[in-house]
Automatic annotation (TrEMBL):
Residues 16-179 form the Helicase ATP-binding domain. Residues 210-381 form the Helicase C-terminal domain. PROSITE patterns: DEAH_ATP_HELICASE, HELICASE_ATP_BIND_1, HELICASE_CTER. CDD domains: DEXHc_RHA-like, SF2_C_RHA. It comes from Teretinema zuelzerae. GO terms for molecular function: ATP binding; hydrolase activity; RNA binding; RNA helicase activity. Residues 629-670 are annotated as: Disordered. It is an enzyme of class 3 (hydrolase). The keyword Transmembrane does not apply. This is RNA helicase. InterPro entries: DEAD-box_helicase_OB_fold, DEAD/DEAH_box_helicase_dom, DNA/RNA_helicase_DEAH_CS, Helicase-assoc_dom, Helicase_ATP-bd, Helicase_C-like, P-loop_NTPase. Its EC number is 3.6.4.13. Residues 657-670 have a biased composition (Basic and acidic residues). Belongs to the DEAD box helicase family. DEAH subfamily.
Length: 853
């Protein structure tokens, strides 16, 4: 189809007429109408480029790149030139650029120096329906520009998702609807054997098996067209590709991953034609919902999942949660199969699951840290933060939490204007905590500026550590080689310098089990930050003390400075029961004080990227801080409960208006709960509802739930206990965890005489025998003689090569002790270990490590 034949041209005159009459218009259409690539050209041909640039914002790098290249090719101009793009690390614009495609973060950076966007005649905010925090902030800032510049025009471009909200926000501006050519899409509900939202390894394996089965069916049926699979994250995508590669028909496919962290060249491959005789199969996160248009897709396999971040402004902690996507997102995914011909969408969940989902995804502004937005407001001279005209108000709690963060960092003055520190922080395209680290080095510790830039680059990127399936043992052994007694932040320096010095960086990453793309990104970020510091007239010095280096880190991460509060547990100023994540080289170490790069809630609260601190260092960070930490955390249980409630809103499927949707199963009654066709007695224990779950009955219920795909979320807010004969297991634990454990482990009760309860194993003397006995891990056994309580068989070690098996009543104790022991065992096992033994250790490590994800 020629560009001029795209549906957007049917509305060309109406769009231009409306834009002439109004400063703002909303253009809505399904994917494929041509609005993203053709509206900038239509505006240019109408003369808008003669008195300023035509700007287009995109929420993702891949979209900015593909859109700019499409427009440049259509107009026959070089790039950079008349058409250009700009994103982090790349500026392909020049003085002749008139159509500029940019990521939304770049526009925010530009508005620091040019708050009224004087270089632009019109700005188009594309993919506005995604409602990212940047998009919402940009819309609010554009309102200010429109009030100041009556010659300025704005186009809000959106999929057909709640577009009336945009019109209402911009004083009931006109809405132009464009109908795209779409073809019928048959929807087939075909869930796997376990519910996709189960969160366990078994649930993921069942999902991979279902994707494999459907793909095999598509190939054997001889259906034409390419395949698009939606999965929640990068790890699931890699596991899926690995699973498919084991099939005999794998060579018939041209499989490509697609997620945000991929390099530019790899992302662009999804637009290529597959090699002759092969069918293209793209396995993607939600990036392929609307941001990119890939022609030729006729089959969509939708897991119905995505990973969303939830931030608690009271405890300053975040949670990356795998959640069911909204109905709107499901329908966007379905539409990808009907772009060029009739297609099929396989929904890997039941119809009643779809019907119970919220209409729209919870906007990012309600579930993210607002401190960077508030800092940018202050930079623009906006100090009445809670009065800013957001399209959806984040509420006072989010703003108050952001202001508190910035005050702790010293970024704001008493009148909420920027302090000197705040002004320097704004020079860096970083979240406030990270920019504060650099400012501390510049102002107080100039001899560690380079080290601080390296640390900040690591904090700005994803973790470079990879654990390939089946190679967990080798990977962790390689990672242990970077360990340092001064913690992860010093390990980062070692990794970075070894990578920089390596003659073959690709080989270095391969043998070190580091992600080559991430290491390249970290290197790029460090170089960019170095240029900014150099432009400030600051020399890039290095070689200062570790004490100075960690003092800089702590100045930015003051909210994540913690004091030890019992064995393996820490607390910060605002959160308690924090444990060091197993991925940290400080795991199972017990310094009195630590600083973390982040505190994340998964199954528990974990400190990530950890280094130890002394009391003297803590006092240097902030006088009196050690005393405040000793006094206990300030967040009340009520606050935590509010946080948990807000988090569960997305999980449980509440509608935008806050009313809980009705579900077909799992009705709670005063005396019990019927779940999966089975009735379970409900009682109150210490004021909390607890279900009694006879193990076999519970397993039957889960099987029934799996095939009928009832909603485990219906009981996930309760607590329970498993009943095995006259014994109890997991008493008082949350149902979410019990379900996950029951679908991950066999929970077979071990005979007391069959497992080595009181036997010591010296690894150097009996490595194979020790590995053989790992089969008993997480079987259940009587915790103590004559006790009603059962526990989990777990592995302990003394740090000197001796290991023993023990029964622990607490699941998390068993989990932590076993992971710690496996980490030690990996280092001590002989290098000539056979593959079968390596696989035993790797498989167990992978299974346990999934509980920390």
């Amino acid at each position: 189809m020629k560009p001029q034949e795209l549906p957007v041209y049917q509305q060309k005159k109406r769009i231009l007429d409306m834009l002439e009459q109004s400063q703002v218009i909303v253009v809505e259409s399904p994917t494929g109408s041509g609005k993203t690539t053709q509206l900038p050209i239509i505006l240019h041909e109408a003369g808008y480029s003669s008195h300023g640039m035509i700007g287009v914002t995109q929420p993702r790098r891949i979209a900015a790149l593909s859109v700019s290249e499409f427009i440049s090719k259509q107009l026959g101009t070089p790039m950079p030139g008349f058409v250009g793009y700009k994103m982090r690390f790349e500026d392909k614009t020049d003085s002749s650029t008139k159509i500029k495609i940019m990521t939304d973060g770049i526009l925010l950076q530009e508005m620091k120096l040019d708050p009224w966007l004087s270089k632009y005649s019109v700005l188009m905010v594309d993919e506005a329906h995604e409602r990212s925090l940047n998009i919402d902030f940009i819309l609010g800032l554009l309102k200010r520009v429109l009030a100041e510049r009556h010659d300025f025009k704005v186009i809000v471009s959106s999929a057909t998702i709640n577009t009336g909200l945009f019109s209402e926000y911009f004083d009931n501006c006109p809405v132009v609807s464009i109908d795209a050519i779409t073809y019928p899409v048959t929807v087939i509900y075909d869930p796997p054997a376990l519910p996709v939202s189960g969160g366990s390894l078994a649930a993921e394996e069942a999902l991979m098996e279902k994707i494999t089965q459907i793909t095999s069916r598509i190939l054997s049926d001889g259906r034409s067209g390419d395949i698009l699979v939606f999965l929640p994250g990068e790890r699931a995508i890699k596991n899926c590709i690995e699973r498919l590669s084991a099939e005999p028909w794998y060579r018939k496919l041209y499989i490509l991953p697609l997620y945000g962290r991929l390099g530019k060249e790899e992302q662009e491959r999804v637009f290529d034609m597959p090699p002759f005789g092969k069918r293209k199969m793209i396995i993607s996160t939600n990036i392929a919902e609307t941001s990119v248009t890939i022609n030729g897709i006729t089959s969509v396999l939708d897991s119905g999942l995505a990973k969303l971040n939830f931030y608690n402004p009271h405890t300053f902690t975040s949670s990356l949660v795998e959640v069911p996507v909204s109905k709107a997102s499901c329908n966007q995914r379905r539409g990808r199969a009907g772009r060029t011909r009739e297609g099929t969408c396989y929904r890997l969940y039941e119809r009643n699951d779809f019907e119970a989902r919220p209409q729209y995804t919870t906007e990012e502004i309600y579930r993210t840290d607002l401190s960077e937005v508030v800092l940018r407001m202050a930079e623009l001279g906006i100090t009445d933060f809670d009065q800013f005209d957001f399209i959806s108000s984040p509420g006072r709690e989010g703003i108050i939490g952001a202001v508190e963060t910035l005050n702790l960092l010293g970024a704001l003055g008493p009148d909420r204007s920027l302090s000197k520190i705040g002004e320097m922080m704004c020079l860096f395209p970083l979240p406030p905590r990270q920019s504060r680290i650099i400012v501390e080095a510049v102002l107080q510790y100039p001899s560690v500026v380079e080290e601080v830039l390296i640390a900040t680059a690591f904090l700005s990127a994803q973790s470079p550590f990879i654990l390939p399936q089946g190679k967990e043992m080798e990977a962790r052994k390689a990672h242990h080689g970077f360990r340092d007694s001064s913690g992860d932040f010093v390990s980062f320096l070692r990794i970075f310098r070894m990578h920089r010095m390596a003659k073959n960086r690709s080989k270095f990453c391969e043998i070190s089990y580091l992600d080559e793309r991430v290491m390249a990104e970290i290197s790029n970020i460090k170089d960019q930050l170095e240029m900014i510091v150099s432009d400030m007239g600051i020399p890039i010095l290095s070689g200062g003390s570790t004490d100075e280096y960690l003092s800089c880190i702590s100045a930015g991460m003051v909210q994540f400075v913690c004091i030890r509060d019992g064995k393996d547990s820490f607390r910060s100023l605002t959160a308690e029961r924090i444990q060091i994540h197993p991925g940290s080289c400080m795991y199972r170490e017990n310094p009195q004080y630590i600083v973390a790069g982040e505190i994340v809630r998964t199954s528990r609260m974990y400190a990530m990227s950890v280094s130890p601190l002394t009391k003297a260092q803590v006092e240097r960070i902030q006088p009196g801080l050690s005393q405040k930490l000793s006094g206990g955390y300030k967040a009340s249980k009520t606050v935590d409960q509010r946080s948990d409630a807000s988090l569960s809103t997305q999980r449980k499927g509440k509608k935008a208006g806050g009313k809980e949707t009705q579900r077909d199963s799992g009705k709670a009654e005063t005396e019990g709960v019927t779940f999966g066709g089975e009735f379970f007695a409900l009682s109150r224990v210490k004021g909390k509802k607890e279900l009694a779950l006879p193990l076999e009955q519970f397993r039957n219920a889960l099987k029934s739930v799996d095939t009928a795909n009832s909603h485990t979320a219906q009981i996930s807010g309760l607590r329970g206990k498993l009943i095995l004969g006259s014994h109890e297991l997991l008493a008082g634990e949350k149902m979410d965890l019990i379900i996950r454990i029951a679908t991950t482990f066999d929970l077979a009760k071990a005979d007391e005489k069959s497992w080595p309860r009181r036997e010591n194993f010296v690894c150097a003397e009996r490595p194979l025998e020790l590995i053989d006995n790992l089969k008993w891990l997480f079987h259940v056994a009587v915790a103590k003689q004559k006790s009603k309580e059962l526990g989990f068989i777990c592995l302990f070690h003394d740090g000197n090569g001796t290991y023993w098996f023990k029964c622990s009543r607490g699941f998390h104790t068993a989990l932590n002790e076993t992971i710690s022991s496996l980490e030690a065992l990996i280092d001590e096992l002989p290098g000539n270990l056979d593959d079968k033994s390596k696989n035993v250790v790797s498989d167990m490590y992978r299974k346990l490590n999934s509980f920390f994800a």
